[in-house]
Amino acid sequence: MNSVIPIIPIAATNPIDIQSLVQPDRVHKRVYTDPAIFELEMDRVFGQAWIYIGHESQVPKPGDYFTTRLGREPVVMVRHTDGQVHVMFNRCPHKGAKLVPDGSGSAGKFLRCLYHGWTFKCDGSLLSVPLRSGYECTALDLKDPQYGVRKVARVATHRGFVFASLSEDGPELKEFLGGVATSLDNFCDRAPEGEVEVAGGVQRVVQRNNWKIFFENLHDTIHAVATHESSWRAAKEEHESMPAGTPKPFEVVIVDGNGEPLEFWEKLELKGYDHGHGFMEGIFVPPTDPVSLAYVASLEAAKGAERTDEILRVNRHNTIVYPSCSPHTSFQQIRVIRPLSVDRTLVEIFSFRLKGAPEATFQRTLKYTNIVNAPSSNVMSDDLEAYNRVQEGLGSDGGDWVSMHRAAGRDQPLPGGRASNGNSEMPSRNMFAAWAGYMGVDTSTQTGSAE
Amino acid sequence: MNFRDWNEQQDLTQFLHHEARLLDEHRWDEWQKLFTPDGLYWVPLVHGQVDHLNHASLFCEDALLRSMRARRLEQARAYSQQPPTRTVHVLGNIALESRDDDATCTVRSTFLLLEWRKTEQRTFGGSVLHTLRRADDGWRIQTKRIDLVNCDAPHEALQVFL
Q1: How far apart are CA A152 and CA A164, in angstroms?
Q2: What is the pLDDT along chain A (451 residues), one digit of tens a residue?
Q3: With an 8 Å Cβ cutoff, are B79 and A204 in contact?
Q4: Which of A5, B24, B98, B135 has the most other CB atoms within 10 Å of its CB?
Q5: Closest residue on chain A to B62 (Cα)
C-alpha cells in the first residue's frame, strides 16, 4: 500500500504506518494496544479536535476556576472579571508550577502562583511580579505576552458547554458539532428556563480499557441484551416479585430496558456525523412516574403544550461528541472521557439541573446517575468487565483484526453524515473514519478490507 | 457518649460483627432483613456530605435497589462476578454516638475491608454510622452510612455492599 503520509519515526525500531491499521470495516488491534499510537492520538486527535472542558455554570462568578485535562495537558477554565470564560494551561510561565490546585474553587481577583507570587488577571495576563527591578536590563520583557499564562489556541461555547482546541486551525465549533449540536440544544430546551447547570458532585470511574472501546460501546446497541443480562434479569425479577399490577418503578425501567430483544434494537435509529459524532434514539419510553409527569407539567407551563411535545419528542439515549464526551439529554448528564494511557481511561460523570424544573427532577437525574453510571452501578460493572476482556484479548496473539462489518454498506446518507438501523456497526466505522482523518490517513485511496 | 453497660456494648458490638459476617459470606437475603422497611444504605461521594437526594453518591440504596443488587450478584451471567468478589471486614473503634430513646441509637465504628477478585486485592477503609432501631427480635438498621477515607477518589467498579 502506498502511504500518503510518511512513516512516522516514533522510535527508530518502531515505525508506525497508521494507514495499514485502519480499513473502512475493520481495524488492527494495535490501535487499541500500542502505547506509541496512544501518544500519537494525544498529539493528533486530542491536539486538533474540539474537546469538552466543562460547563459555564461550573465557574459562575469571576475568579472561579475548574481544572481538567485536554489530552495530556492540565488546563484550567477561569471566569474573568468581565464575565468571559477562559481556558488556559494550568502552568505558571515563570517556573512552571501549576497555578491552581486540581479541582475547582475560587482564585479571588487574581491567579497568584504559590511559588514566587507572580500574579495574573483571570484572563491570564501578567499583573505583577515581585522584585520587578530585578528584571530591568535583562532579556525578560514583562510586557511580552509569553509571560502571561498561555491560553489554549481556541475556546468556544455552545449553549453554556465550553469546548477548547489546542489547534489554531480547523472548523468552528458549530460546524464541528454538526448534527449533534441538536442534542446539546435539546439538553437545554428541556429546562423550563432554557438553561442547565452542573450540580450534585462528580463521579469518577477508572476503566481498564482503551478510550476508543468505551466510545464504540456507547452506540453498540446489541451488546446490551448479552452483557447486561445479570442486571436486566434482576430488575425484571424484582418487578415480578411485586404485587400484580404494580407500575414499574423508575429504578426498574432504567435497568430492565437493556433486556429488549434484538428486534427492538434493529428498529432504533442511529445517526453518525462527520468528525466521529452521532446519536442514538431513546430506548426508554418517556417515564410516567409522578416525578416525570410533574416535570412535563413544568415544561408545559413555561413553553406551552405544542413546544413541549416538540422538545420531548427529541428523545435520545447517548450522544457521542467525539472524542471527549457523551451527553445523555433525556436524563441530564454528561460523561466526560479522559484517556489516561493506552489501557486506562477515566470517565467523569457530571449531573445537570434543569433550571425552572421541580427539585425532584434533579433528584431523578441523580438517581439515573447513581444507578446507571456510578462506580457502584449494577449495569456498568458488566460493561467494565467486557471492556477489560476486550483489552486483554486484543493484547493476545489470537488474531490481528477487529471486525466492524455488521450492516456495512447499508448506511443511508444524511447531510453531514449517515444514518443506519439500530444494530449496525456504523457508529464504530464512523468514528474510525474520523480517527483516521485526524491521524493523517488519506482515506480517499482506501478500498476496504481484503476479505 | 458511653454505652449504658457492658451488656449494651456487647449487644451492639455483636450486631455489627454479625452484619459484617453476613456481607463477607454473601448472605444477602439475611443482610437485607436487618434493615427496617424504609432503611437506607448510603455511601457518600464526598466528605461531609449531608444530602443523598440532591448530591450524587457512591451507593444510595433503598430496599428495592438493595434487592436488585443482591439478585444481580446471584445471576449466573453476572460476568463481572466471575469469579465472585471476596471480602473480609475488620471492625474497630465501636462507640455509641447517641441514644435517642430506648429503641433508637446511633453507633459509630471504623472498618477496613479487604477485597479480592481475579488478580488483585483492594483495600477500603473508613467510618460507619449505624442508626439502629430495636425490634422484637433484635436491632434493625434505619440508616447505614459509610464514609470511605477515599470516597472522592476515582474508583474502579464497586460491586458488593461495603
Answers
A1: 7
A2: 444 454 444 444 456 889 999 999 999 999 999 999 999 999 999 999 999 999 999 999 999 999 999 999 999 999 999 999 999 999 999 999 999 999 999 999 999 999 999 999 999 999 999 999 999 999 999 999 999 999 999 999 999 999 999 999 999 999 999 999 999 999 999 999 999 999 999 999 999 999 999 999 999 999 999 999 999 999 999 999 999 999 999 999 999 999 999 999 999 999 999 999 999 999 887 778 899 999 999 999 999 999 999 999 999 999 999 999 999 999 999 999 999 999 999 999 999 999 999 999 999 999 999 999 999 999 999 999 999 999 999 999 999 999 999 999 999 999 999 999 999 999 999 999 999 999 998 766 555 554 4
A3: no
A4: B24
A5: A251
Question: Degrees (nearest 5) of the Cα angle B37, B56, A369?
Answer: 90
Q: What is the amino acid identity at position A342?
A: V
Report phi then psi at A203, rounded to 5: -95, 145
Residue from A64, A63, A89, A85 nearest A76 by CA: A89
A362 with B54: Cβ contact below 8 A: yes
Is the bond preceding A323 in cis, omega lying within 30 degrees of 0?
A: yes
Which A-chain residues 215-234 have CB contacts (< 8 A) with chain B?
A: 227, 229-231, 233-234
**DSSP state letter for A372:** I
CB contact under 8 A, B72 and A230: yes
Q: Across the interface, do B80 and A384 touch by the CB < 8 Å criterion?
A: yes
How many residues are there in chain B?
Answer: 162
Q: Most distant CA pair in chain A: distance in Å? A: 87
Distances (CA, A) of A448 to A13, A19, A27, A416: 28, 12, 11, 21
Q: Using a CB–CB cutoff of 8 Å, tell me whether A242 touches chain B.
A: no
For residues A37 and A440, the answer to whether their CB atoms sit within 8 Å is: no
Interchain CB distance below 8 Å, A386 and B79: yes
Which residue has cell 504506518? A17
Alpha carbon of A378: minimum distance to chain B alpha carbons (Å): 7
- Chain A interface mutation, best of B32, B41, B65, highest count of A Cβ atoms under 10 Å: B65
CB contact under 8 A, B156 and A366: no
Chains A, B: CB pairs < 8 Å: 111
A390 vs A58: CA distance, rounded Å: 35
